[in-house]
Model the fold of this input.
Amino acid sequence: MQTAAIASLAPGAAAAAPGPPGSPGAAPFGDLLKSAVSGVDDLQQQAASAVTGLLDGSGVDIHDAMIATQKADMAFELALAVRNKAVAAYQQVMGMQF
Done:
């Protein structure tokens, strides 16, 4: 479920995600991560412009501003959770003794 949410953040990421790492349709993990962060940034910018439009009185409805703000907040929370899991996995691997 979280993978689908991350893929939905970036328009091009969903088409490139399926398949094993060596398959022709697979994208490197770095590209998927960049597109997910870019999607979060886009949502943050949309929320900022909606709030600015609401404060300026340029015809933005308060409901639209709140929805954009909540979308951006949820996307950021998801990105933060993914980052925390990646850091925890890295720390676990670095703590292994061979």
In short: The two ends are 34 Å apart (CA to CA). The chain has a mean pLDDT of 83. Helices lie at 2-9, 13-16, 29-56, 62-94.
